[in-house]
Amino acid sequence: MSVARVRANADGLPRAIGLWSRAGRPVLRLSAGTGAGATVGSTVTITAPDGSTSSYTVTSRTTATTADAAQAVAGAASGELLLVVAAGTGSWTVVTAV
After folding, report:
1. Do 58 and 41 contact (CB within 8 A), yes or no?
2. How far apart, in whole angstroms, are the C-alpha atoms of residue 20 and residue 5?
3. Which of 12, 43, 51, 92 has the fewest CB atoms found within 10 Å of its own CB?
4. What would the pLDDT profile of 69-84 be if each residue is shown by its tens digit?
5. Alpha-carbon distance 16 to 59, whole Å?
6. Per residue in 5-26, pLDDT tens?
7. pTM (2 decimals)?
């Protein structure tokens, strides 16, 4: 999947569908339909705007409040990719991949 770079909201989560980087850690916001396929053990390959690609293996998937999702983004380890998907008002699906 090819993604565009986006900015973050005040809550620390990506403002729109796309790729955002926090302290060099990639965060990808997906639509609900696209994010449904990111299950534990699956591979996510992203193509950055510069054409480079990176592949990650999904290690966890959880539902979180906006505050908890933002905390997960802020505390992501170096080398982790976080996928966030809006799951309703104040609720997010957070997927971690390495």
Report:
1. yes
2. 6
3. 51
4. 999 988 888 888 889 9
5. 24
6. 788 788 878 888 887 776 667 8
7. 0.80
